[in-house]
């Protein structure tokens, strides 16, 4: 698909948003559904071979649980980007409501700050799912994101 898109429109940027866990046990502390074995999705190869300009892995877990950790998975994903592709982790804003997982807004803020701290490794921003919770300002998330995003964002260059 990458080659076809670029054959028609070379300036179009192509990326994917795969399930957050590539393989059970990779990295070592991670356990859960394996997108490689269950969904037949080799997102690691796509990143290693530069078959996408960016990847937005669905890292819909908290930072601290060891079985599925946002931080461990983000670190692993950026390490796979041998061709210097951008990584924009998916952030689970949908887990804020009390009727669901009941995450705190602090969790989302921490994830944004972790991603920002990895900018030099091409983790260049977050993708929020879903915008519904932001628009409804669930637990004040819109207010917190407004505070975090005071400076105008610049579009990262993709070679």
UniProtKB/TrEMBL annotation:
Keyword Acyltransferase: no
Glycosyl hydrolase-like domain sequence ranges: 3-99
InterPro entries: Divisome_Glycosyl_Hydrolase, GHL10
UniProt keyword annotations, A-Z: Signal
Protein name: Glycosyl hydrolase-like 10 domain-containing protein
Organism: Rotaria magnacalcarata
Highest classification ranks of the organism: Eukaryota, Metazoa, Spiralia, Gnathifera, Rotifera
């Amino acid at each position: 698909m990458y080659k076809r898109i670029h054959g028609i429109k070379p300036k179009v940027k192509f990326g994917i948003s795969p399930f957050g866990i590539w393989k059970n046990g990779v990295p070592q502390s991670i356990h859960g559904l394996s997108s490689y074995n269950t969904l037949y999705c080799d997102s690691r190869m796509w990143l290693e071979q530069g078959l996408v300009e960016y990847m937005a892995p669905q890292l819909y877990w908290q930072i601290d649980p060891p079985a599925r950790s946002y931080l461990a998975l983000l670190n692993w994903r950026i390490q796979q980007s041998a061709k210097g592709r951008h990584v924009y982790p998916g952030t689970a804003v949908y887990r804020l409501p009390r009727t669901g997982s009941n995450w705190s807004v602090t969790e989302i803020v921490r994830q944004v700050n972790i991603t920002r701290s990895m900018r030099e490794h091409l983790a260049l921003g977050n993708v929020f799912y879903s915008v519904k919770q932001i628009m409804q300002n669930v637990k004040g998330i819109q207010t917190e994101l407004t505070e975090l995003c005071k400076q105008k964002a610049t579009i990262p260059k993709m070679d």
